[in-house]
Design brief:
Strand order of the largest sheet: 1-2-3-8-7-6
CATH superfamily of the largest domain: Trypsin-like serine proteases
Number of helices: 4
Helix content: 10-25%
CATH class of the largest domain: Mainly Beta
CATH topology of the largest domain: Thrombin, subunit H
Radius of gyration: 24 Å
Order of helices and strands: HHEEEHEEEEEEEEEEEH
CATH architecture of the largest domain: Beta Barrel
Structural class: alpha+beta
Number of strands: 14
Length: about 260
């Protein structure tokens, strides 16, 4: 009888310990982040890097974009989003040889994910195509939005081979920014007639039009626009080389902004 009582008490103790473990570890409720949340310096830097990177969607394609300018104009405050031409190319129609027009009937949408105090706010807006360059693979969109400051751009003369680089975008159309890290491998990589900034940061379809960042002091500065991912072809199969990306240099980005009048 005494042994049975001891076994019974031991089973209760084991059950209590198991219950405590399951409720505190396995089935623990997630910590609610609110007014008590105190972001670290690194958190603030990462937030400032990711917030300006937006998702760009058309009826036929998706990709990423980056807020590069915020301007007050006569009819309101607008943000200008840089992306790749190939992301919105379905909305540009060829009418004659070397002549294209924008199809205004096909909408372009920009989705903004704002991170603040551990909470993500999602805003979806209709965008207007302001300018584009098929040769440079760049396009500029405009949205009526002013809550996020534009990215700061790096001095291209300070870029170095093998320095750490970060790509922020929306790979495969994920619902929020997805950062990856690697290194700059070549400052001038020729593809066809154009020169690109090469890097080994992991990327996949959907990263196009996002932003390549490098760190300078307490800030992450934009160093280019991810544009090309190398593709290996084997028969009818296309295999993406995810660690061999090409970005349009920040020098060309600034040139495109000047020619666009922004």
């Amino acid at each position: 009888m005494g042994k049975s009582l001891i076994d019974f008490l031991l089973s209760i103790v084991v059950g209590v310990l198991l219950y405590v473990f399951l409720t505190s570890v396995v089935f623990a409720r997630p910590t609610v982040i609110g007014d008590n949340y105190r972001p670290s310096k690194e958190d603030k830097m990462a937030t400032a890097m990711m917030n300006p990177v937006v998702q760009v969607n058309t009826s036929r394609s998706y990709g990423s974009g980056t807020i590069v300018r915020v301007r007050k104009e006569y009819d309101g405050v607008f943000s200008y989003v840089m992306t790749n031409f190939h992301v919105i190319s379905a909305n540009v129609v060829k009418v004659k040889r070397d002549k294209y027009v924008i199809n205004r009937l096909m909408p372009v949408f920009v989705t903004i994910n704002t991170h603040a105090r551990g909470v993500v706010t999602v805003t979806k807006l209709k965008a207007v195509i302001v300018s584009y360059s098929k040769e440079m693979d760049l396009a500029l969109l405009r949205i009526r939005y002013s809550k996020i400051p534009a990215v700061e751009m790096v001095d291209p003369k300070t870029l170095r081979v093998f320095e750490t680089a970060y790509v922020v975008g929306y790979p495969l159309g994920v619902p929020t920014q997805y950062p990856t890290v690697g290194q700059i491998t070549t400052l001038k990589f020729k593809v066809g007639k154009r020169m690109y900034l090469a890097y080994n940061v992991p990327m996949i379809f959907g990263n196009s039009g996002g932003a390549l960042f490098v760190r300078r002091g307490d800030k992450y500065l934009m160093a280019g626009v991810p544009s090309i991912m190398r593709i290996l072809r084997s028969g009818y199969t296309k295999i993406p080389v995810t660690h061999m990306g090409m970005a349009i240099s920040i020098t060309e980005v600034k040139m495109f902004l000047r020619t666009s009048g922004v």
